[in-house]
Design goal:
Blueprint lengths: L9 H13 L5 H13 L3 E3 L11 E2 L5 E2 L3 H7 L5 E3 L5 H19 L3 H16 L6 H15 L8 H19 L4 H12 L1 H4 L1
Antiparallel strand pairs: 1-4, 2-3
Helix pairs in contact: 1-4, 1-8, 4-7, 5-6, 5-7, 6-7, 7-8
Length: 197
């Protein structure tokens, strides 16, 4: 991943991928899958604090807390909101953010119709295949789109490939959120530093 900067850990690669996938996420089911995935990788936390909390109760007007559950019930109606857990080192966190933003900028340049067709093809192909073949389907679709897209030659090609890959994965997962975890793992395997060496 030479063109992607100094992503020395698989955790940072996962953070870039998740950051890309969560930007402008559509459906609530997709957001729930992203939240679950982020928690499993220790990359996110729910900033709305949904879920069980110890010693939760109602606040009385006199300042006392009683043991009722209306605060929990009211908080349960709030949709999960993701907050990424950036690296503690500020320079490293800035690098990861910059890479994710650069990939989103590249993705914005793809022609909508070409990406929509590729997303539909990828969705159809992975739905009919075992997950071991998803990487091949993803690679084939990215290669096919790369041959059709004009005007991105001036950009680092590895970044274009990563941005296109993540765009297709996001498109498929927004339609079928249950595929997120396996597709995330497929992309992580393809672009992790350990694999690149």
């Amino acid at each position: 991943m030479d063109d992607l900067g100094d992503l020395t850990s698989g955790q940072n690669v996962a953070l870039v991928i998740l950051s890309f996938l969560q930007a402008d996420c559509g459906t609530s089911e997709y957001r729930k899958e992203l939240l679950s995935l982020g928690k499993d990788f220790n990359l996110t936390r729910d900033i709305n604090l949904n879920g069980p909390r110890p010693d939760d109760g109602d606040l009385e007007t006199d300042g006392h807390v009683c043991s009722g559950s209306s605060v929990t019930a009211a908080r349960g109606d709030v949709a999960p909101s993701l907050e990424l857990q950036w690296p503690r080192d500020r320079a490293e966190a800035a690098d990861v953010r910059q890479i994710a933003e650069g990939l989103r900028e590249i993705a914005d340049q793809f022609e909508h119709n070409i990406v929509a067709e590729a997303t539909q093809n990828l969705s159809r192909n992975i739905s009919a295949s075992p997950s071991e073949q998803w990487k091949d389907h993803l690679r084939w679709e990215v290669d096919r789109v790369m041959r059709r897209v004009v005007g991105l030659e001036h950009l680092p090609q590895e970044r274009v490939i990563v941005a296109l890959t993540l765009t297709l994965v996001k498109g498929v997962c927004e339609r079928t959120p249950r595929l997120l975890r396996n597709l995330f793992d497929t992309v992580l395997q393809r672009f992790s530093p350990a694999r690149a060496r």
